[in-house]
């Protein structure tokens, strides 16, 4: 029987392990962090689980919804209208609707027109190629203006990416806007986002239980440090030791 090692216990790695164990393959999953979940993992704050990174899904995330349905959790996804605000100029401004944009005083009328038209173009674009080799900061300044960067995008990028804010590729922002555009209602005036009641950890835990129930094993806090070719298979070196695998599937983020 072919033995398989999966590197990474995020949703991709756990789902791969689920499908492989369903077919009877022996699978062991290695995760560097103490718990599973990857970018959807949680920490406990005040006795309640809180997502470390991603905490909602879009209406376009149909694969997640189908997986939740398979695990009996689809009715635990709550779809709620989103609200946004921007802190600039010493106050919090409501943001995200046509009316709030008109009332957003840090931008002039021309800035608002450029912001809306270029954002709509981004949401409707289907080809990522034009955005791959240009920094987002450069694209925004060119197509939306310096004041839009300083009032809206610049603070967000610096909070999220710190010293790398000016190096982030425009393709990242395009993808975010593309997904958000597909989570809006037909009128385009509102947006719905999905939240798992009790946090994403519920789906992660259900995946782990299903994988273990089908014979798979999960090794958290035991990262893969090196993979060596070994004849027809591989030797997988982890923090706790080493083992042989016929196949290795890497489902970890790109460094």
What's the structural blueprint in terms of helices and strands?
Blueprint: E1 4-7, H1 11-22, E2 27-31, E3 42-45, E4 48-51, E5 57-58, H2 62-70, E6 77-81, E7 84-88, E8 91-95, H3 98-102, H4 109-124, H5 136-143, H6 146-161, H7 170-181, E9 192-196, H8 201-213, E10 217-220, E11 224-230, E12 233-238, E13 241-245, E14 247-250
Parallel strand pairs: 1-2, 1-14, 2-10
Antiparallel strand pairs: 3-4, 5-9, 6-9, 7-8, 11-12, 12-13
Helix pairs in contact: 1-8, 4-7, 5-6, 5-7
Describe this structure in words.
The protein is of the alpha/beta class and 255 residues long. The chain folds into two domains: 4-55 and 199-250, FAD/NAD(P)-binding domain (3-Layer(bba) Sandwich), CATH 3.50.50.60; 105-181, no CATH class. Helix content is 36%, strand content 25%. It has eight helices and 14 strands. It has helices spanning 11-22, 62-70, 98-102, 109-124, 136-143, 146-161, 170-181, 201-213, and strands at residues 4-7, 27-31, 42-45, 48-51, 57-58, 77-81, 84-88, 91-95, 192-196, 217-220, 224-230, 233-238, 241-245, 247-250. The longest helix has 16 residues, at 109-124. The two termini are 32 Å apart.
From the structure above, extract its key features:
single chain, 255 residues, alpha/beta, 2 domains, 3-stranded antiparallel beta sheet, 8 helices, 14 strands
């Amino acid at each position: 029987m072919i033995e398989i090692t999966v590197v990474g216990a995020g949703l991709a790695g756990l789902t791969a392990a689920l499908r492989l164990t369903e077919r009877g393959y022996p699978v062991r999953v290695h995760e560097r962090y103490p718990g599973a979940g990857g970018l959807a993992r949680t920490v406990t704050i005040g006795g309640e689980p809180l997502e470390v990174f991603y905490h909602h899904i879009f209406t376009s995330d149909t694969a997640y919804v189908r997986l939740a349905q398979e695990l009996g959790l689809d009715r635990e996804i709550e779809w709620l209208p989103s609200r946004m605000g921007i802190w600039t100029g010493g106050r919090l401004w409501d943001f995200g609707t046509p009316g709030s944009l008109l009332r957003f005083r840090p931008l002039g009328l021309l800035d608002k027109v450029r912001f809306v038209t270029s954002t709509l173009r981004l949401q409707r674009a289907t080809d990522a190629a034009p955005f791959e080799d240009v920094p987002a900061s450069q694209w925004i300044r060119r197509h939306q203006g310096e004041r839009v960067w300083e009032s809206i995008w610049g603070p967000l990028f610096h909070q999220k990416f710190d010293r790398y804010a000016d190096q982030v590729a425009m393709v990242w922002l395009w993808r975010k806007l593309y997904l958000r555009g597909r989570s809006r209602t037909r009128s385009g005036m509102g947006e719905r986002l999905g939240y798992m009641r009790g946090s994403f950890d519920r789906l992660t835990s259900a995946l782990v239980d299903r994988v273990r129930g089908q014979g798979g094993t999960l090794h958290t806090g035991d990262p893969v440090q090196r993979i060596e070719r070994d004849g027809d298979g591989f030797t997988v070196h982890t923090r706790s030791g080493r083992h042989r695998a016929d196949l290795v599937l890497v489902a970890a983020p790109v460094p």
